[in-house]
Design goal:
Elements: H1 4-11, E1 29-35, E2 38-43, H2 53-65, E3 72-77, H3 90-96
Parallel strand pairs: 2-3
Antiparallel strand pairs: 1-2
Length: 98
């Protein structure tokens, strides 16, 4: 059975092309729900004007669908609360000079 941790690990493959860091480290993944093989990921972007939203949704579906036990994958892009650099991991802050 797929777990939260499995999904989170898969999401480390979703990379922000401008920053070169993954969405988990950047704090752009707001929620992961796993229920009987059905996965729902809520994410945001660094700014609402960022054009990569559809690409991110596709990557979330691709990487999570590869996990054993996943029956379906859905994602939702939200902008509330807005992303801020304080949501990044300490490693990401260090890598980006924060």
């Amino acid at each position: 059975m797929v777990t939260y941790e499995d999904v989170e690990a898969a999401l480390t493959n979703v990379i922000d092309p401008e920053l070169g860091l993954d969405f988990v480290e950047l704090g752009l993944i707001y929620a992961i729900e796993v229920n009987d093989g059905h996965v729902h990921v809520t994410f945001t972007l660094t700014t609402p004007a960022c054009p990569i939203g559809p690409q991110v949704s596709e990557q979330i579906e691709e990487f999570c669908s590869e996990l054993e036990g996943v029956k379906s994958v859905e994602s939702s892009m939200v902008f509330s609360p807005p992303w801020t650099p304080d949501k990044m991991s300490e490693d990401a802050k260090f890598a980006l000079g924060y």
